[in-house]
Structures are given as structure tokens and as C-alpha cells.
Amino acid sequence: MKRMLLATLLSLSALPAAAGQYSDALQPSGRFSVYGHGAAATPPMGFNPWNAFRTEVDQARIASVVDALQQRGLQDAGYRYVNIDDGWWLRRDAQGRIEIRTSMFPIAQQADGGTSFRAWTDMLHARGFKAGLYTDAGRNACSQAFDRHSPNLPVGSVAEREIGLQGFEASDLKTMFQDWGFDYLKVDACGLADFGAGSEPVKQSGHRALRPLIVRGDAQRTDADAVETRYARVGRLLADLNPDGDFVLSICPWGEAGVRDWGGEHGNLWRTSPDIEPTWASMLHNFDSASRRELYAGPGRWNDPDMLAIGLGEFDAQHLTQARTHFSLWAMLSAPLLLGFDLREAPQPLIDLLTNPEVIAIDQDPAGNQAVLVADGRPVQVLVKPLATRGERAVLLFNRGDAPATAQVTPAQMKLADDASIRMRDLWRHADLPQTRGALRFALAPHQAMLLKVRGTPVELHGALLSEMTGRIHVAADGLPSYSTALDQASGTPRADATPEGLPLQVAGEKYAYGIGTHADSRLEVATRGEFARFAATVGLQDNAGQTDASVVFRVYGDGKLLHATAPLTAGKSADLDIDTTGVSVLELVAASQNAPAGSLPPVVAWADARLRQLDKRIKVK
Ligand code: GLA
After folding, report:
1. Residue pLDDT, tens place only, 210-245
2. Helix, strand, or coil here: 464?
3. Is the pLDDT confidence value at 9 over 90?
4. CA-to-CA distance for 386 and 471, rounded, in angstroms?
5. Is there an atom of ligand 1 within 6 Å of 188 CB?
6. CA-based nearest residue to 360, from 343, 339, 381, 374
7. What top-level class would CATH report for the domain 372-455?
8. Which of 1, 91, 522, 621 could join 464 in a cystine, given CB atoms 3.0 to 4.6 angstroms apart?
9. Bridge-partner residues for 422, per DSSP?
10. What does the domain layout of the chain look like in residue ranges?
11. CA-CA distance, 289 to 237, in Å (whole number)?
12. What secondary structure does DSSP assign to 142-164, as a single string?
């Protein structure tokens, strides 16, 4: 709910006073307002049975996958979560308790006739795994809408078949986490989307109709606030039920209802797109749904473009180039790595690919910076992910097309000094490449990705560019009037080193390679954690972005206190900031517009060349 309601924005923009003054969204919070709970400091890794077994999630099958995870070195490589997806429930009993389908999970049968997953999670824990479960935010689950011929759907009366969380949030979550001992929960959203009056599941299977809160692909008819409220409640309950913080909340409304904006405030990962299919086109689509969202991910909160399709269809052992590219892309996005194929029979080359420790280390890098798309061409894209070790970056050059292509990346794009030498290592060939200077060039086969770990001299020697610590930025208000998929797609959301539309930053005639581009009426929180002495930037409206009458005030807050405010800046004007930030834990960057014409998007602005200078050069930027 970080966006302002369109109506409010429009009426305020007609007033002479600064719009920002009236908007809660632009008030400093004095904190880093992300979810902050759960055990997802790095992206979760594990196995999810959905794409392999759909609703046939029986105990024996998953147990043999667990054997394979251990015997084939996947557990040692970091795959820890063993999740159960849709299909595990039998019914909700008269007391409101969920019964497990014991024909699939005999381990769940209790002597007193009840059911419990405790023995299942004990088994997983004893073997060094974590246990995941699946539910829905509404009354019914996705299988009840889309797998209606499955023999494993909930049974009984209408009420007994309502196995979703709605109305039972507190008791179900208590059962799952405190009684059954789960560590991970995926909360799907079909119950909020697919059971409207007149829908097939309601007509054919007699489910109770629920006015859809999500209308897929239709932002106007989707009630994004209501969906967010549901997930926020689940997030709060899980935090309360797990005082040790050892849990993960996976939010699953497939990129709908603005979840890409608010997911990081209520959970640890959120789906940015529809379900992945094992095709090149689907993989690209899901990658694209997250690849411009680098300011939304960070430790504890991850964009989730869905499970890995490796091992299936166009990513099977006959398509190792595509499988390596898919894995590389997910690693660059800091995406969760959830395997989704039947590992028991997996050919060894796929296992080798999925256990590549150097690629996994890119995904799991503790800084949690999602890669920035630094070249967005067709067919070649280039991504750069600043790693926790100073001067190290993962660099990916990626041929989306069906023909061979050449690709290049410059030191400046890697945020490295032009004139210093560059070391690099090919993470798929496990080979160091010759030390070099200047741009790197490669020939890429169709669908190939070159994944490198590069080490050089950072352009900012005494601290960090703000855009190389994206994992420490939270977009608290993105400047766009109320959630709209159409707007997001047309205008984009805040970006590192680019405008929301993906253009180079340019203020008062000057081009800037680095910085943050956003719409005005925005607020960014930066977790500076007392490590930086100064914040410097050149601020102003983006050149040639329309909005000639608007002016923007840039305010910088430290731990909720105003450190600096510029005069109102009109198009073509800039201001240089250099602000003492000693001791500041959370820096907030606010851009508030005045006189923006009603009915149009707020102006595009730049925090160009934004840098944080360190207190003590020995402190590492993580
Ligand atoms: C939705 C989710 C999938 C899977 C299925 C189960 O489609 O997005 O990941 O959980 O439901 O029915």
C-alpha cells in the first residue's frame, strides 16, 4: 500500500503546496521497512514436487527424492528445503482441523485416528533437511480449480472441502508450524481468484462462490489492497508463531495484485509471474518478470520467477546449454533455487549442472544484490551482480536468440575502473581466463550464457555506488499512482543506473552512468547501518522526460530526521548533494513533485551518481 491513491494524488497535484507534504507515503519511516522475519538471508534452495508429480505428492515418492538429494550430492550443494505442494489434504473436519490424506501420507496417521505431519518433519529434520508445506490464502486451492479430475482433491461437503486458510489463518498456521513442525510455507492465491460466481469450479464442483480479489491480468478489477492485507496477516502470524525466526514465507499470487511491489514487506519471496513451463519462451517470460526489479530484492526478500524447469522439456539433458543458461539467470536474479523434476532418474550431467558450487555461490552471495541489467539488447542482454567481496562482480552475457551473437561488457558497466586490470573466471568451465583490461567480448552460441566472476578496481574506491548495493535499498514508495500492471509495464518502476523506462540517466545536460532513476513522489530507504560518513549525489529531473512545468524537492533523511532539502528544482536544473551521514542507520531519499499536471505520471527524477563514502576504508561493503 505504498502507492498513493490516484484520486488523492490528482487532487493534491492541483494544490499549490508540495504534494509530498500531505502524503504519508513520503513521510520518513526512520526504519528499513522490509519484512525482516524468517530465515531467508540468502535465497531458499530445495525441492518442490509440483512440476514433477502435480497432485500425486505421495510420501514414498518424495522420500525417494529425499534419498536422491542426499545420495547425489544435492543436499551437500545446498538444497535443503523439501516441500510438499498442492494435493496433501483430505478435508477440514467438523472442528475445523485439516486432515491429511493418509493414503498418500501413511506416516501422518495417528493412533487416535487423527493426522499429523510431525513424523514427516521429524524424519526430514533428522536427515538434515527443512520441511515445506503448501496452502492457499482463500478457501480453496489451485488444484480444485485446475486439476479437477485429480483423484487427490479434498473430499466431503462444501465446508469440508474448504481447506484454504481463509477464516482459519491462526489455527491452520499454528497447526502447521507449532504442531507439525514445518519450516516453510507457500501460500497460493487461487482461492482469491478462481472461485467467482459462475466459475467452472463453483458450477461443477459446488464450491462456495467468493468475489474474486484477483482478476488475472486485470489490475483495475483486482483488489490489490485486499490481497496485500491477507498476506500481511499471514506474515505477522508466522513471525509470531516462530519466535526463533526459522521459517520462510513464500507468497504466490503469480505477479498479480501488485505483489512485486509489496511482497518484500510481508514475506521472504513472492512470485513475479505465472507458472513456469519447460519452454525457452516461458523461461524468458518469467526471467523478464523479475529482471528489472533489482531494487526490490535483498537479504530476506527475493523476487521469485518460479521454480527451476531444469530436467524438463526444453531444459532436459538434451538441452544442457539452455539448462545452464536458465540456472545462470536464476543465480543472477538471486532467485530461490527450487528443483522441480524427478531427481531419482536424473542423468549425471544435470546433477553436475545443478550442483556447480561456483554458480550456486553467485545465487547465494551474502550481499544479496540482484543483478542489474546493464545492456538490454536483442538478442544480447548483459547482467552485472556486485558480490560481497569488494571489487568482485558476477557478469552474465546472454544470447536470447536462435542465432549466434557477439556480446561485450565494458569495465564501466561492471562498475570497475577502466584503466586497471581485470581478472575473470568462467564459472561453467571452472577456468580462469587471461587477465585483461578494457571491454570483454565473447561469441555466444544460440541460447548460450557466459557466466563470469570478475575482479577489478571498483569505480568508487572509498565506499560504494548506491547502485552497487541494491540489496540494501527498499522502494518504500515508487511514485506511481495506485497499482496498475499497465502503468508498471509502460513506465517501469525505480531502477539502478537507468530511468524506470530503462533509459540512461541524464540531468541538466549531463549523462550519468550510475545512480537511481525513479518517478517523483517516491521514497527509497537505504540500510546504511552506520557504516558511511557521507552521501553524495547530483539530483534533478531527468532531461527530456516531459513535465516541463513540474518542480521537484529532494529531501534526504537520516534515521527519520531531515538532513537536507533542495530548493524546488525545475527541468534542466540540478543540485549537488554532499551530506554528513555519520552514524545513520537508515537513509531515506524522498523526491516530492510540485505542479505536476493532473492526470499524468509524476516526473522522472534521478539520484545521479549517488555514492556512499565510508567512515573507515577497512569496512567492507556487503
Ligand atoms: C499454482 C502455483 C503452482 C502450484 C499450483 C498447484 O498454479 O502457482 O506453483 O503450486 O498452483 O496447484
Report:
1. 999 999 999 999 999 999 999 999 999 999 999 999
2. strand
3. no
4. 10
5. yes
6. 339
7. mainly beta
8. 621
9. 436
10. 46-363, 372-455, 463-613
11. 29
12. THHHH-TT-TTS--SSTTTT--S
120-129: b or e for each residue (b if 16 or more CB lie within 10 Å)? bbebbeeeeb
Strand partners, 524: 475, 589
For 463-613, CATH gives 2.60.120.1060
What is the CA 387 to chain-centroid distance, rounded?
Answer: 17
Let me know how long the chain is: 622
Chain centre distance of CA 392: 22
pLDDT level of residue 596 (50, 70, 90 thresholds) = confident
User: Running DSSP on this structure, what letter comes out for residue 345?
Assistant: G
Which residues in 41-67 are b (16+ Cβ under 10 Å) and which e?
Answer: ebbbbbbbbbbbbbbebbbebbbebbe
Give how far Cα 587 sits from Cα of 578, 582, 590, 614, Å: 13, 11, 10, 14
Q: Are 582 and 615 in contact (CB under 8 A)?
A: yes
C-alpha–C-alpha distance, residues 590 and 30, integer Å: 12
Contacts 24+ apart (CB under 8 A), 91-97: 91/154, 91/155, 91/156, 91/160, 91/161, 91/163, 92/154, 92/159, 92/160, 92/161, 92/162, 92/163, 92/168, 93/160, 96/168, 96/171, 97/171, 97/175
Q: How far is the CA of 47 from the centre of ligand 1 (A)?
A: 14
Is 46-363 a CATH 3.50.50.60 domain?
A: no
Q: 53 in ligand 1 pocket by Cβ < 6 Å? A: no
Mean pLDDT, the chain, whole residue set = 93
| Ligand 1 centroid, distance to 19 Cα (angstroms) | 42
Q: Which residue among 55, 142, 144 is best mutated to probe the pocket of ligand 1, counting the most ligand atoms within 8 A of its Cβ? A: 142
- Amino acid sitting at position 14: A
pLDDT (0 to 100) of residue 621: 44
